[in-house]
TrEMBL record:
It comes from the Bacteria. Its EC number is 3.5.1.19. Belongs to the isochorismatase family. It comes from Anaeromyxobacter oryzae. This is nicotinamidase. Residues 9-208 form the Isochorismatase-like domain. SUPFAM superfamilies: Isochorismatase-like hydrolases.
Length: 213
């Protein structure tokens, strides 16, 4: 698969300390993808890195809901909310991108989940808020203005923020390629369901070895 430096973009999702082994919400083997992503990033003119950037007391934290525990699902009027350990709190080390990801390669750093009452998995839109809407982050328009036609995704976690970003990228009209070997999942056993969802929106699942850089 030949890359087009001007029309392809790399979207690197949440390579943050709290999502890596030893972090508050560590994804198993997540650290294994840092070096290969770092090697790949310079092949793209446009590289977007996302960063969960939650205020204290964020709606996604189990600690924000009396009697609730991490990994439970809370029923809310706007839809189900997965509950997590406190993670990626604004300004904390856990929220910082891993040093192994080259800052010089990043064209845009996009922070998400910044509003206390609204979660945000996708790089393109927030989750459904109390008003029933999913506000855009503006990323789709920004990429389009740069002439990007195809988005390659890598990062954490495959079954949440990578998956949601891929679905929304397709909805924005981009060709979507998920670099499977450069992602890891919170719940690997749900992989078939994620694969079916990605296929349903026309996203391609590939590996970095297939890229002609």
């Amino acid at each position: 698969m030949r890359l087009d430096r001007e029309k392809d973009a790399l979207l690197v999702v949440d390579l943050q300390h709290d999502f890596l082994p030893g972090g508050a919400l560590g994804v198993a083997d997540g650290d294994a993808i840092i070096a290969p992503i770092a090697r790949l990033a310079p092949a793209f003119t446009t590289v977007v890195a996302t960063q969960d950037w939650h205020p204290r007391g964020h709606v996604s934290f189990a600690s924000s809901h009396a009697g609730r525990k991490p990994f439970e699902t809370l029923a809310r009027p706007e839809g189900p909310q997965e509950l997590w350990p406190d993670h990626c709190v604004q300004g904390s080390r856990g929220a910082a991108l891993h040093d192994g990801f080259p800052d010089a390669a990043v064209t845009l750093l996009l922070r998400k989940g910044t509003r206390p009452e609204v979660d945000s998995y996708s790089a393109f839109r927030e989750n459904v808020g109390p008003d029933g809407r999913r506000p855009t982050t503006g990323l789709g328009a920004w990429l389009a203005a740069r002439g990007v036609r195809r988005v390659f995704l890598a990062g954490l976690a495959r079954d949440f923020c990578v998956r949601a970003s891929a679905v929304d990228a397709a909805a924005e009209g981009f060709e979507v390629v998920v670099l499977d070997d450069l992602t890891r999942a919170v719940f690997p056993e749900r992989g078939a369901g994620v694969d079916a969802l990605l296929a349903g929106v026309g996203a391609r699942i590939a590996t970095s070895a297939e890229l002609d850089v």
